[in-house]
Write a structure and sequence with these properties.
Helix content is 75%, strand content 0%. It is an all-alpha fold and 191 residues long. The chain has two domains: 1-108; 111-191, no CATH class. Helix 5 (88-95) packs antiparallel against helix 6 and helix 7 packs antiparallel against helix 8. The chain is globular.
Length: 191
């Protein structure tokens, strides 16, 4: 009972460490997050759900981390998160490490949550790891049809994605070109 407020606060603070520069910190924070959500007792679950939902997208992206131990920790934490939320399809896709299936599960959420995920994914477009930039681009491209952004948001996202067409990593360039095409094409269809 005494640890209850600390556990909730700790879970929230751990989310910020998922993107730490140190791979050891990223890995440890994800494993500790997993342990915290598995230890949550029934009276804490309601308050913990939002923190777990906020962790889903970073865990998805970090499942492709260039450091294999971080990717493994992210995968384990993602399975634990899906189990905590009682989201069976997400748990199934996470256990199989099917990143496209996990993305599709995240896009089946309420529109408000999808919009939060799109906004959250923008920070990964400048991540030092090419795999993170590539995952963010893929997510934005797939999620774009679920979001009707303002003209300002649309232009901002389009310019950042278009800029990544000149990224130093060829796979990021390819994904940026594809995502730019998706953004342009979907905007023309909405007119």
């Amino acid at each position: 009972m005494e640890a209850r407020p600390i556990a909730l606060e700790l879970a929230g603070k751990l989310l910020y460490l998922f993107n730490h520069v140190s791979d050891k910190v990223r890995e440890s924070s994800m494993l500790l997050f997993k342990d915290v959500i598995e230890a949550v007792v029934w009276w804490q679950k309601g308050k913990m759900k939002e923190k777990v939902r906020r962790g889903l997208l970073p865990l998805l992206f970090r499942s492709s981390d260039e450091t294999s131990s971080v990717a493994q920790a992210a995968g384990e934490a993602l399975v634990a998160s899906a189990r905590f939320l009682k989201w069976q399809e997400l748990e199934h896709q996470a256990e199989k490490r099917n990143l496209v299936g996990i993305t599709e599960c995240l896009l089946q959420q309420k529109r408000k949550r999808v919009v939060k995920n799109i906004r959250q994914s923008l920070q990964y477009l400048t991540d030092p790891q090419a795999t993170m930039r590539q995952e963010a681009l893929l997510f934005i491209g797939l999620a774009w049809s679920s979001w009707k952004p303002s003209e300002g948001n649309r232009k901002k996202i389009y310019s950042v994605v278009h800029f990544l067409e000149h990224d130093s990593h060829p796979l990021v360039c390819s994904q940026a070109t594809l995502t730019t095409h998706i953004l342009r094409h979907s905007q023309q269809q909405k007119k």
